[in-house]
TrEMBL record:
Residues 8-124 form the VOC domain. This is Glyoxalase. Pfam families: Glyoxalase_6. PANTHER family: CONSERVED PROTEIN, HYPOTHETICAL FUSION PROTEIN.
């Protein structure tokens, strides 16, 4: 067996019908900087470094349903965002444009949907 090559996760990419609009939402939510902005592609970088968060325009994008039922488009990824004050973070997320999901599976976690329908969790 050969030695494993060096590999580093550089970021997460979310599809959207409008990469620029979804990136603007996450910029408001997280306060991250735009480090790359091209037609159909935007990358945000965390001020402290680490993996980035990118968005690509996908014309065939289908909004996921959460929680998905039989035959529903399922989410393929969600973001977990640690917060120090859940109530304040929820208010901020809603002001940024997030929608509180109807189904909330845990008392100390809040599931929100971004403008393209991707679920993300705020947790203590």
């Amino acid at each position: 067996m050969s030695e494993r090559p060096q590999m580093t996760v550089a970021g997460v990419v979310l599809d959207s019908p409008d990469a620029q609009a979804l990136a603007a939402f996450y910029q408001r939510l997280l306060g991250w900087n735009v480090v790359q902005d091209e037609p159909g592609w935007v990358k945000l970088g965390a001020p402290g470094g680490g993996p980035g968060l990118s968005f690509q325009t996908e014309s065939a994008y289908v909004r996921p349903v959460w929680p998905a039922g039989p035959g529903d488009p399922q989410m393929s990824v969600h973001l977990d965002i640690h917060v120090d004050d859940l109530d304040a973070a929820c208010l901020h997320a809603e002001k940024a444009g997030a929608t509180l999901a109807d189904f909330q599976p845990q008392e100390d976690v809040r599931v929100y949907l971004d403008p393209a329908g991707h679920p993300f969790c705020l947790f203590l």
